[in-house]
Design brief:
The protein is an alpha+beta fold and about 350 residues long. Helices cover about 30% and strands about 30% of the residues. The strands form four sheets. The chain has a seven-stranded antiparallel β-sheet with strand order 5-7-1-4-3-2-6. InterPro entries: Baseplate_J-like_C, Baseplate_J_M, Phage_Baseplate_Assmbl_Protein.
């Protein structure tokens, strides 16, 4: 309903023996009301659309999903490994770039778990020399190294929407596959999960996870998920999330290194070094897209045609042919619990 339509309907209800031309008293009296009603219709249409999960965004999607007990995942803090030349006290603080870390737990001699004090993926970003915020006697070197549990940004709309619709397609209850998937995905640091019921006999469940950065999870994350689901010391006793009688084994996804060989035709005067960064970037983007689908597919298939299409989007590349994946001129079908890991690209270059 537009302003013009509403105004016309209102004027039609006025007797014709009354002046209702533009600028008349009656016209000026009802025109503002017609405008406000038109705005109301716009708002009604908007609120009608966001009442459905497939169109809702932001807080309205959060409200909708909350009706099914599905809550938006909050941002979390990264847990990293710090390596030092000496023992350091817990709660010591260090900085690198624009992030700070606090020591929360000792791993072994001179190695500690550090928690980023800033939430989100920024805690996964940096590595290298740490600077102490407070004086520590005997400290000569401090290095921020492995990501033990990745930090996560607040869950985006599309991820939350997918979990909502997944819950509609397969009802979660009593330790079924959908229940394990739903509860495991809620754990910090977990980006995807595959569940294998009765994998080693009745009552056994194997859970394979990928971390929230879409990489092979560190052993610390695997151990944490194992403890949350079914602690090793008391397997099957129901002391974790898993129901009593379920013996759960948690494993991390494996990585399959992939070397790409191809013949590239570049613009005149360009070499492989000129396009190397762009080649690695588009290939990693493709592999990350594949990793996002890992827990929804039986096997990831790395397709030569998709790689070639993305490489051809690089403006310096004119043509590509004879592409091979791990020395084979065919698509690469990975094992069910494997994700692609870019190794290197070897290009035979010609210039047109």
């Amino acid at each position: 309903m537009t302003y013009e339509q509403i105004l016309k309907r209102m004027l039609n209800k006025i007797p014709n023996d009354i002046d209702k031309r533009e600028g008349s008293i009656i016209y000026n009296a009802i025109a503002p009301a017609a405008f406000e009603l038109a705005q109301m219709y716009v708002q009604l249409e908007y609120f009608d659309s966001i009442s459905y999960a497939d169109k809702a965004t932001g807080k309205y999607l959060t409200y909708r999903c909350g009706e099914r007990g599905i809550n938006r995942k909050d941002a979390t803090k990264a847990i990293r490994k710090g390596v030092f030349n000496t023992e350091i006290p817990l709660n010591s603080r260090f900085g690198i770039e624009n992030t700070t870390y606090i020591v929360i737990e000792k791993i072994k001699d001179k190695e500690y778990k550090l928690q980023c004090e800033q939430v989100g993926t920024i805690g996964n970003t940096y590595a290298g020399t740490l600077l102490p915020i407070d004086y520590i006697k005997g400290l000569e070197s401090a290095v921020l190294s492995d990501i033990l549990i990745p930090g996560e940004d607040i869950e985006d709309d599309e991820s939350l929407r997918k979990r909502y619709f997944d819950s509609l397609q397969s009802e979660s209850f009593g330790g079924n596959v959908a229940d394990y998937k739903s509860k495991t995905k809620k754990l910090d640091g977990v980006g995807g999960v595959k569940v294998y019921p009765a994998w080693n006999g009745g009552g056994t469940v194997k859970i394979v996870i990928i971390d929230s950065s879409l990489n092979k999870p560190n052993s610390s994350l695997v151990d944490k998920v194992q403890t949350d689901m079914d602690p090793v010391k008391n397997k099957g006793n129901g002391e974790g999330i898993a129901p009593i009688g379920h013996i759960v084994t948690v494993e991390g996804v494996d990585e399959t290194p992939i070397t790409i060989k191809c013949n590239l035709t570049l613009l005149p005067n360009y070499t492989i070094n000129d396009v190397k960064f762009q080649l690695e970037e588009v290939i990693n983007e493709y592999f990350n897209d594949l990793k996002k689908t890992w827990d929804d597919k039986d096997n990831i298939i790395v397709r030569i045609a998709h790689i070639e299409t993305r490489i051809l989007e690089i403006k310096e590349v004119i043509d590509i042919n004879d592409t091979k994946l791990n020395d084979k001129a065919k698509n690469l079908i990975l094992e069910p619990n494997c994700i692609p890991e870019f190794d290197e690209i070897i290009g035979v270059i010609s210039n047109d």
